[in-house]
Design brief:
6-stranded mixed β-sheet; about 140 residues; globular; Transcription Regulator spoIIAA; 5 helices; alpha/beta; disordered N terminus
Length: about 140
């Protein structure tokens, strides 16, 4: 398919479904289900886009008063450097503190896009978060 067609589809999808947000080649779809914010991420990982989208997820959690967040990254490709992963963990933890929220956050992903290092950095800064290899494991942890 031509790139213009894909761009038109993406723009139309964002207009029709405002819960679906794209930043360049990284997209998120957000659903709220009784206290759980279910976030599905797809596309190619890049630091600035990932940080921007995670902040949007935090904002959505505040808006919906969600106390649990599942970020499904199983459809994400790409890789971040160790330094970028570190900064992602630090900045998201600081953003959560700034917003005065402390949701329980589960990530489901696979290497190389998700290796758990950013999650560990967040844990070291007081964020209640874990990394899983499947969505079901993440949901099980969130329901405890």
């Amino acid at each position: 398919m031509p790139l213009d067609w894909w761009a038109a589809c993406r723009k139309a999808r964002m207009l029709l479904f405002p819960r679906h947000r794209c930043q360049m080649d990284l997209c998120i779809d957000i659903e709220f289900q009784g206290g759980l914010l279910l976030v599905t991420v797809s596309g190619t990982l890049a630091f600035k886009m990932a940080l921007r989208l995670l902040k949007q997820v935090c904002d959505a959690a505040v808006e919906k008063q969600a106390d649990r967040i599942l970020v499904n990254m199983l459809a994400v490709d790409g890789d971040l450097t160790t330094t970028e992963r570190y900064h992602l963990g630090v900045e998201v933890a600081a953003y959560l503190r700034q917003r005065k929220v402390s949701p329980k956050i589960a990530f489901a992903g696979k290497p190389p896009a998700a290796d758990g290092f950013g999650v560990r950095v967040g844990q070291n800064r007081g964020v209640l978060t874990e990394m899983f290899s499947s969505e079901q494991e993440a949901l099980n942890w969130l329901s405890k």
